[in-house]
Specification:
The protein has 681 residues and is of the alpha+beta class. Helices cover 14% and strands 32% of the residues.
Length: 681
């Protein structure tokens, strides 16, 4: 049973209408819940769009777990993140972006709960990436990038050459190593703790946050992750190290050279939990290991769980861990005994904790659990469990106005293909009438190491508001069904997953719900790849397509993307070793069948996307143009895989929706402002 705090919703139903683009302004995002030391309050970061200034305004909000009462501690302002309580509970620290333009960077601040202005503790030229309070509250350890090495002369005079490594082709200067520093909590001069050409890893979004620093309870040691260089393509060569803060000596926790991450000392300091992939393979699920703090590999705790763990937090007793990860059609939380045995799944009802390669959850000193969660008919809110055996209680109603709209109902569909059991999410039109057939849009998730689950989806609800069914199919390679399912995509990035999607579509067409003459396919990133793959390999099925940030050419991914040669772990060995390997890359690329595409296709991309270089969108664009296929290529001058500002996020959705309206529901498409054409450039 789900217990609800007494939260007002009176009058919201009177405002009810289908979800539309204007309603994006009503959504409040929630991230990073953090318990106060006494377990009575949870700090959480909220964000709301400011379309006039094209930014998200963030606030630090304190929520009482007993009654849901709220107090805004800081904000609203741009760029607030990572709240962390002092051990005494009298202060709370956070990162806040300072400066403007190219000089803008997150710095560390601390705020007294009794009142007053936040105190700025760091002035790191490259900003603070992440940090951790020392257990006695006397200092912070934090991570920042080194400043560039001095050149022979000024850059504006031509002295700006740099050596290229395994990184994305957009890099305009040598990446610098990130290292650990220590700054007193009372303020004062920061002290460097580590140095060298090696680095702590830096996550380029989207992805899980960089492995946090973990203090030993006595405050003498820090566990962290080290990579040999700051080049993004070398991140798989990551190993866990332990730093002696007093003398600066560093020792490896294990002797493994690869793929270790997310170390965390146990409450008594005697053990360290960390992540390592099943069988030591990059393509496999992450498992949680526990080892003595003195070193050694230890033992695998989650082999029997067979789920890709995306969060592990010590419970206060030190005998169990809270785990989180995708699990079937939702995100689950488990309690895993350290001495072994089966993990116990927590009863969360229909609420699914937020997942974005990282589960948004926290554990208090008294054993309470807080998480951000949603369900198909309710956007994200803050939830609380008094213990691992308690029912979840919703503490907030930030998104009550959206929950009260006429939302399309959603259900999980299952089907079989190639010996696998697959699933996906089907969202109905908001004003669905039984017996009437509606157009259908497939929205294929990216990754491919991700999954579509039973959570609130703003894009699906936007389509529902315009009278569409939306189908979000999972396929082999998705990470919600265990290791065999995830690993099945290795060297089969197109054909196998494509058959899985088409089998799900075939079942849906047999249901009689959809108009089989009005079906579109779409997706972003790997979802954009699968869109292009399906458009080319099953051309008669589609009325329209939208390929966003589409990875259409795996050789480009290997050579030019931020993951660089790590793609060899997924697609197959280097395409430069022999012609057979090169042919395998081409055969798995969507461009191999691009000349067969017939459906009108919208291409969306960011010009400086490091994850999926725009070169691949240009290839698709010219293939379509040269073959006389109706197409439009819309690009944004954004140096990221996904836009982080609200205006571009909304406009991306507008182009996506209107393209489908143009070809699946002619006469209903709104007129979007036309960007300046690049013609044949």
């Amino acid at each position: 049973m789900l217990l609800l705090a007494a939260l007002p919703t009176t009058g919201l139903r009177a405002q009810s209408h289908p979800f539309e683009l204007a309603d994006l302004a009503k959504l409040t995002g929630l991230t990073d819940p953090q318990f106060s030391p006494d377990g009575k309050r949870v700090a959480v970061v909220t964000s709301v769009p400011d379309y006039d200034e094209d930014r998200f305004l963030t606030s630090l909000v304190l929520v009482d777990v007993a009654n849901g009462q709220q107090r805004v501690l800081a904000g609203p302002r741009s760029g607030l993140s990572q709240p962390r309580w002092s051990p005494s509970g009298q202060e709370i620290a956070f990162l806040l972006k300072t400066g403007t333009g190219k000089d803008a960077a997150p710095q560390l601040f601390a705020l007294a709960l009794a009142g007053g202005e936040p105190r700025q503790l760091t002035h790191a030229p490259k900003g603070v990436q992440h940090y951790a309070w020392r257990p006695d509250g006397s200092a912070f350890a934090y991570v920042t990038a080194d400043e560039p090495a001095k050149q022979a002369g000024p850059a504006d005079k031509g002295y700006d050459a740099f050596e290229v490594g395994d990184n994305d082709f957009l890099l305009g200067a040598a990446p610098t190593a990130s290292h650990i520093w220590l700054v007193p909590a009372a303020g004062g001069e920061a002290k460097r703790l580590t140095s060298g050409p090696w680095s702590l890893p830096v996550t380029i979004p989207p992805g899980a946050p960089s492995s946090p620093l973990s203090w030993s309870p006595d405050g003498q040691s820090l566990a962290f992750v080290r990579v040999p260089t700051p080049h993004s393509g070398d991140n798989r060569q990551r190993s866990i190290q332990v730093l002696n803060v007093a003398d600066g000596s560093i020792r490896p926790l294990t002797q493994r050279p690869l793929l270790e991450s997310y170390p965390a000392f146990s409450p008594d300091g005697k053990q360290v939990a960390y992540w390592y992939p099943s069988q030591g393979k990059y393509t496999n699920i992450s498992e949680v290991w526990v080892t003595p703090a003195g070193g050694g590999e230890g033992h695998d705790l989650t082999l029997a769980l067979d789920r890709d763990v995306a969060r592990s937090i010590w419970m206060p007793d030190g005998k169990t861990l809270l785990l989180g990860g995708l699990d079937g059609d939702r995100t689950s939380l488990w309690i895993q005994p350290i001495k072994g045995g089966a993990a116990r799944k927590l009863a969360l009802g229909t609420v699914s904790p937020a997942w974005s390669y990282w589960v948004e959850a926290n554990v208090g000193r008294t054993g309470g659990i807080a998480f951000v969660g949603s369900s198909p008919d309710r956007p994200a809110e803050l939830y609380y469990l008094a213990s691992a055996s308690a029912a979840p209680k919703r503490l907030t109603n930030f998104n009550g106005a959206v929950q009260a709209l006429q939302l399309g109902k959603a259900e999980t569909r299952t089907w079989q293909s190639d010996g696998f059991r697959h699933d996906g999410q089907l969202t109905y039109p908001a004003n669905y009438v039984a017996g009437k057939k509606y157009p259908l849009v497939l929205v294929v998730h990216g990754g491919p190491y991700s999954a579509s689950t039973a959570v609130f989806s703003s894009l699906s609800q936007l389509f529902a508001g315009r009278g569409y069914f939306t189908f979000e199919p999972n396929y082999r390679g998705s990470i919600h069904q265990g290791n065999a399912y995830k690993a099945a995509i290795y060297k089969d990035f197109g054909a196998g997953p494509g058959r899985d999607v088409m089998a799900g579509l075939a079942q849906l067409k047999r249901s009689g719900l959809v108009d089989t003459a009005r079906i579109g396919v779409s997706g972003w990133s790997y979802g954009g790849f699968m869109t292009a793959w399906l458009l080319g390999h099953y051309p008669a099925q589609w009325k329209a397509g939208v390929a966003g940030a589409a990875a259409t050419d795996w050789e480009d991914q290997y050579n030019l993307a931020d993951g660089s040669t790590q793609w060899g772990e997924l697609i197959g060995e280097s395409p430069w070793l022999n012609e057979a390997n090169a042919q395998a890359y081409r055969a798995q690329s969507a461009m191999s069948a691009a000349s067969k595409i017939k459906a009108p296709t919208l291409i969306l991309a960011n010009t400086a996307d490091p994850r999926v270089p725009i070169t691949q969108s240009y290839k698709l664009f010219h293939a379509l143009k040269d073959n006389g296929v109706a197409t439009k290529f819309i690009a944004w001058p954004v140096p990221a895989h996904n836009a982080s500002d609200p205006v571009r996020q909304r406009e991306r959705n507008r182009f996506w929706l209107d393209w489908m309206d143009t070809y699946l529901q002619p006469g209903t498409a709104a007129v979007a402002p036309a960007p300046k054409s690049t013609g044949g450039n």
